[in-house]
Design goal:
Mean pLDDT: 91
Number of strands: 4
Distance between the termini: 20 Å
Structural class: alpha+beta
Largest sheet: 4 strands, antiparallel
Helix content: 25-40%
Shape: elongated
Strand order of the largest sheet: 2-3-1-4
Low-confidence stretches: 1-7
Radius of gyration: 15 Å
Order of helices and strands: HEHEEHHE
Number of helices: 4
């Protein structure tokens, strides 16, 4: 189905949300942090003409990064999403909620500090 969506939606960009985890990750429930990409459409002012697909998690000793693709039929919809994406994580309540979600995905959430440090468009 993801391939069909990309065929119908010729415009696609990849994005990532990066969290530093200090001192380090003991165990990370990747299924739980992937929910972040699923939650984005529920946030206020999410652009209606885009679809999120191809979600993944990159995990290191002291970070996790949630990646996903955004597809749309028009370049304007992708541009609107890019603007929204750059702005939404500047809102402290959203940042705090996502940091808590990542912390809950850790085996030892009370022993770690989770900080949303970057959100960016990735090179395709």
């Amino acid at each position: 189905m993801q391939t069909q969506n990309r065929e119908r939606a010729p415009h696609a960009h990849k994005y990532a949300i990066h969290f530093d985890i200090l001192p380090e990750i003991s165990y990370l429930n990747q299924k739980l942090v992937l929910l972040i990409a699923d939650f984005l459409p529920t946030f206020h002012d999410f652009p209606q003409d885009v679809q999120i697909s191809e979600k993944w998690v990159d995990e290191g000793l002291d970070f996790c990064r949630i990646g996903f693709s955004v597809c749309a039929e028009s370049p304007d919809a992708i541009k609107t999403f890019g603007n929204w994406f750059q702005a939404i994580f500047r809102e402290q309540p959203i940042t705090t909620a996502l940091e808590h979600l990542v912390a809950c995905a850790l085996d030892e959430p009370n022993d770690a500090e989770v900080i949303l440090t970057d959100w960016t468009r990735l090179a395709n």
